[in-house]
Specification:
Elements lengths: L38 E2 L2 E4 L4 E6 L14 E7 L7 E4 L1 E5 L2 E6 L1 H4 L5 E10 L2 E13 L5
Parallel strand pairs: 1-9, 2-9
Antiparallel strand pairs: 3-7, 4-5, 4-8, 6-7, 8-9
Length: about 140
């Protein structure tokens, strides 16, 4: 014999507790991070030695960026925002690769911890491509 049904109430029926499942929540959209910050690139250097850094620049689709009309500069300062420049990288561009060199004489001016960045001006737009700290180890041979 079936148990009587009571309106407005979900309760046991024939000894079975009813289960009401909520509709599944729609999947959350993935978070999108939009940033205009440069790539963080910390460098370990040896005081007084030539320092070489290559920066490759690609378009969002992965193709090589045309840097033929670009202006590039890279500097070292004691800290971001510091007034005085400790050293300037020598810059050359080949295709979509920026070659930076800090000659030995410039590298000898580095403090144990300083900051660097590489800035690109292309089509009247300024973009800092890479930035970070330079951790300098004091040399032995002079």
């Amino acid at each position: 014999m079936l148990a009587p049904h009571t309106r407005g109430r979900l309760g046991p029926r024939n000894g079975v507790e009813p289960y009401v499942a909520a509709a599944p929540a729609p999947p959350a959209a993935p978070a999108i991070l939009i940033t205009a910050l440069p790539v963080e690139a910390n460098i370990d250097a040896y005081e007084g030695d030539d320092l070489f850094v290559d920066v490759t620049v690609n378009n969002p689709d992965g193709s090589a960026t045309d840097l033929s009309t670009a202006t590039v500069m890279a500097q070292v300062r004691t800290a971001p925002g510091a007034r005085d420049i400790l050293a300037n990288f020598t810059v050359s561009v080949m295709g979509n690769v920026i070659h930076l060199q800090l000659p030995a004489a410039q590298a000898a001016l580095l403090t144990p911890l300083c900051a660097w960045d590489c800035q690109l001006t292309l089509l009247n737009q300024v973009t800092t491509l890479a930035a970070g700290a330079i951790n300098t180890t004091t040399d032995v041979s002079r």
